[in-house]
Design a protein that fits this description.
The chain is an alpha/beta fold. It is built from 20 helices and 17 strands.
Length: 478
């Protein structure tokens, strides 16, 4: 059963001096084949089984990490999978995309001792992939029918997690999403080299086989109002995520060749599905042969720069207004990007974009870190006399996402929001200002991690179950 897990070692070591368009897909595979690391069982056996499981404490799902590592080390993979799956609806997805360096692995006692963390994410991915291959992944355990239905708006990780738990409670579950495929950012926002799309699709297919109904290409406010959905179901969950891109206010920002990160990543992922993507085919959203500048420093920016490398960009630069230590994205992803040939231009911000109709360059200025802001991070400020220029045929704006105006879009002005535009919920029940309408995931907490969305989906399902059960009991007693 033991199989070799592969650790990606970057091109800086494997192909010194080879960058951008010079890299081929075959190079990445060759690197993976060249650098093999211990089997899952051997890696799991490194777990110290410490008295305080810091890895579990720092996992938003509080996975029983030391316990399933021990089972893996003993070769009891089916039991390890069952334990891992007991707290997470998507363990193989979390194993691939969680920032383990900031969560479980970053708090591993072995890491503290200077010997390198147990590669928890890789083991989690391996164990669950093995479960799929061996047929250990069981259908959704549908509970006895309760005669009540739930509507879920948004087929991202929070909505999908809630749908599975609510189906297990015995509810009829309908998921509505404006895209043509379920999965949200798992499907269209995260590159396939980080999260293979068949991994997402098989999870969704399992939910569909469990009786969950998916209504795709469905927009609340266009195809039905929120009020109409409330009348159709006994309760609703809003789990839309946050998709409105943060903008850049600078001269020339409207020129051709300056694109949004999600548009760029969605086009790449659609090509991976074999879809017709005119904006990719005409070169607008294809980085091949281009000098690419990505503005931003989060995980989405890292996804963009690494996608551009794989598309064969002539050069890829990442412009970020703070330094490396204050970068919000994963340090592991940043290191991977550097090894693949991405150049990071720290403490820099765009001032304007050159080009009449099409972008030809970025005029930028140096920044410096000033006094801490309200969050405690040192705020960037202009460094006088630090102007410089970068050549650019394609500029990708990756400054993060904000909530859309859901009360207006949904035709529900009474839906309460915070000053940030996220949905306002009761901290105890996760219910919005509308009776029987709950919310979870990024639309409540702001742009965050997939693992937190899964946790929110799990929690809100329990709250919705308690609320609907109380309603049903009251109706029977009346």
């Amino acid at each position: 059963m033991a199989e070799t897990m592969l650790k990606f070692v970057g091109t800086a070591q494997a192909y010194p001096g080879k960058r951008g368009a010079e890299l081929r897909a075959e190079d990445f595979r060759e690197i993976a084949d060249r650098y093999a690391v211990p089997t899952a069982e051997e890696q799991a056996s490194r777990c110290s089984q410490c008295g305080v499981p810091y890895c579990s404490v720092h996992c938003p799902l509080h996975n029983h990490i030391p316990d399933w590592l021990r089972l893996t080390a003993e070769g009891r993979l089916r039991e390890a999978y069952a334990l891992s799956n007991s707290t997470s609806t998507m363990p193989e997805i979390c194993g691939r995309i969680c920032p383990q360096d900031r969560l479980c692995e970053g708090n591993c006692v072995i890491e503290f001792s200077g010997h390198g963390a147990v590669t928890i994410g890789s083991v989690e991915k391996f164990v669950t992939d093995t479960a799929w291959e061996e047929g250990w992944v069981e259908p959704v355990a549908v509970g006895p029918a309760r005669g009540q239905s739930v509507g879920i708006v948004g087929a991202g990780p929070a909505g999908l997690a809630a749908a599975e738990y609510l189906r297990e409670y015995g509810y009829e579950v309908h998921v509505y999403d404006r895209h043509d495929r379920a999965g949200g950012l798992l499907t269209y926002g995260i590159p396939g080299f980080k999260l293979e799309k068949h991994v997402v699709m098989r999870r969704i297919e399992r939910l569909a086989q469990g009786g969950i109904s998916f209504h795709m290409d469905f927009e609340v406010g266009r195809d039905a109002s929120l009020d109409a959905l409330r009348k159709r179901h006994d309760s609703l969950l809003i789990a839309t995520g946050v998709y409105k891109p943060r903008g850049i206010q600078a001269p020339g920002v409207g020129a051709e060749g300056i694109v949004e990160a999600l548009d760029y990543l969605t086009a790449s992922n659609r090509k991976g599905f074999g879809d017709a993507v005119p904006a990719f085919d005409d070169g607008s959203l294809d980085a091949r042969g281009k000098h690419v500048v990505v503005v931003g420093g989060g995980d989405t920016a890292m996804d963009c720069v690494r996608t551009a490398v794989r598309q064969g960009a002539a050069s890829v630069k990442c412009l970020y207004r703070r330094d490396r230590a204050n970068m919000p994205g994963s340090q592991r992803e940043t290191a991977n990007a550097e090894e693949e040939g991405v150049e990071f231009v720290w403490l820099s911000a765009p001032e304007a974009f050159d080009g009449d109709e099409r972008v030809t360059g970025v005029r930028a200025t140096r920044m410096r870190l000033g006094a801490p802001d309200a969050s405690g991070r040192r705020a960037p400020e202009l460094d006088p006399g630090g102007a410089f220029q970068l050549r650019a045929d394609l500029v990708i704006k990756a400054l993060g996402f904000e909530p859309e105006d859901l009360p207006r879009l949904f035709g529900a002005e009474e839906l309460g929001v915070t000053r940030w535009g996220t949905l306002r919920t009761d901290g105890r029940t996760m219910m919005t200002s509308l009776d029987g309408v709950f919310a979870a995931g990024d639309i409540v907490r702001g742009a965050s991690l997939v693992v937190w969305a899964i946790r929110d989906g799990r929690d809100v399902a329990a709250h919705m179950h308690a609320w609907m059960r109380a309603r049903a009991d009251a109706a029977r007693a009346a």
